[in-house]
Amino acid sequence: MDNHNNAEIHDVAKCWSWKKSHHSQLRYPFRGASKIKENYSQAFQDLFVLSMLDGVRSGTYLEIGAQEPCSNNNTCLLHREFGWGGLSIELDPVHLSTWKKERPRSRLLIADALSLDYSGILSELVELGARKSGLPSLFSKLFPSGQKPTNRIDYLQLDIDPSINTLGVLKLLPLSDFRFSVITFETDVYTGDLRAQAESRALLLDHGYKLVGADVSVLYEPVSPRPVPFEDWWVDPLIIDDKKITKLSSLAHTAVCPQDIIFER
Amino acid sequence: MVRWQATHCANTLNVCLGHKPFPDKFRHHVDVMLSPRPLLSPFQTVVVDDNKFGQHGSSLSEYSQLIWLYDHFSKVINDYEYVRIFQYRRFVSPNDIGNVCSHPWAKWTKARDISRYDDAFRRACSGEMFNHPFGFPETVLGQYKNTHIEDDILNFARFLVESNKFSHSDESAFLNSVKLIPACNMGVFKTSTLLWLLAELKDASQFMNTKYFTPRPGYQRRVTGFLLERLNSYLLLNKYSGHRRYGFHTIIADGPNIETTTNISG
Questions:
Q1: Is the pLDDT of residue A150 over 80?
Q2: CB atoms within 10 A of CB B229
Q3: What are phi and psi of B93, to 5 degrees?
Q4: Which residues of B touch A100 (CB under 8 A)?
Q5: Are the C-beta atoms of residues B141 and B227 closer than 8 Å to each other?
Q6: A69 contacts in B (CB within 8 Å)?
Q7: What is the model's pTM?
């Protein structure tokens, strides 16, 4: 390997935001990656979703704990560059004005995520997804005979504070009636509180999901100069390729940085 | 047609109230939807749960959303000069539009015709606008008694007096008013006017937490909302001296027979 490639790999390992040249180092290259100019997630969650779903367009998301529409946001790239739609839920109305300005055509619900009835919300989201334009979708590739699984949402973000509340929302979701292709669950185990991690893992494993990013770390300098474990990344084996799951599971023995998952090192 | 005087600069936040969305084709008129339940059609919806307002919060009806707006005023309103409030099936039009309906204080129009009334949702305003006041054949007391429960408005007025929000002359003027602004929480408000009005109404909503309040079942369950609506109208007509113009109460419906939700807001 020449010096130039070494430098790039070194760069990817240290870099916490997307650079256009990174597409050539994706572990799972996907259509549209070369056109991405920037990403918005704090720890490459947006790239994780796209990597798992082969860059699917017009997907559907449920984002719980949305905060800002772009900064450190996991659905902004999906919405802006890949035509995704969905629902973002946020407690604090202070974010209304920035959403109106920066993502005026994204659906934002200001609400207490712990007080909602998710059956109705998810049914409406599935319906919205089904009504989308006839752009090629992952499902049509996976289910050419038209046996598209119903009640599926492509991406679920769970991230409200503290993590015990995130667990509370997970318990409210009708997991037996709806499936999520990719899930990011913020455990915040760096705080020392392991309750949300333990219970969410038991619950999601029980519903057949696969943990492909255990204790994914993020650079959070108020806490530590080194990356701290804060999130679990999950996929649905009914949708995600077995080879991806096997490979990523082999990486997940210890806390990993998101770059380890997203990029080939 | 006289056009609503408007500035060229967007200075108005359009807020829609309702448990149902504004007609989907025209959701671009809605900046923020305030709703008691999650709605996915508008781009930005705030869910205001009645339970946040205590044991009798559900008696507030749409005033729970308005009191929430008051509680979060600076976060939501920011630098806007005006706030336009409308509802999922009604709005104030600057022009006399629509057709005669079963409510003499309103006219009706089909949802598809909203495209002709962009002026009613313009985000650049230069003045306040409320619905035209309507002269009822009876006083507020008599009119309330016909549709609701007389004791409730009498107890409400007594509460306002005994908590020093009303003088005795205010009480008399309130109960004996013969003019009301129908659907008076809608219109174009200066932010300072709305802030004043909502502060008064929030203060008065404490009625539901006092000995003066009696919870009611069924349709009368929304008793505090009915009473605040009367007070809202009284305050705008009698306690507010700012310059305002009156617009036209327009109901979005399929025909002239309007299903009643309250007796003065239709």
A1: no
A2: 25
A3: -100, 140
A4: 31, 43-44
A5: no
A6: none
A7: 0.90
Q: Which residues of B176-199 are buried (b: 16+ CB within 10 A; e: fewer)?
A: ebeebbbbbbbbbbbbebbbbbbe
In this prediction the ipTM stands at 0.89
pLDDT in tens, B39-54: 998 899 999 998 889 9
Per-residue confidence (pLDDT) for residue A251, from 0 to 100: 83
What separation in angstroms does the CA of A99 have from each of A77, A88, B198? 14, 10, 25
DSSP, residue by residue, A106-131: S-EEES-GGG--HHHHHHHHHHHHHH
Please answer yes or no on whether A107 and B43 come within 8 Å at the CB atom: yes
Give, as one character, the DSSP assignment of residue A263. Answer: B
Touching check for B115 and chain A: CB below 8 Å? no
Residues whose CB falls within 8 Å of the CB of residue B27, separated by 6 or more in sequence, listed in order = B21, B41, B42, B43
Q: What is the number of CB-based contacts under 8 A between chain A and chain B? A: 53
Tell me which chain B residues have a C-beta less than 8 angstroms from the C-beta of A92: 75
Q: Are B20 and B39 in contact (CB under 8 A)?
A: yes
Contact B47 A125 (CB under 8 A): no
Helix (H, G, I), strand (E, B) or coil at B1: coil
Under an 8 A CB cutoff, do A104 and B43 touch? yes
A101 touches chain B (CB under 8 A): no
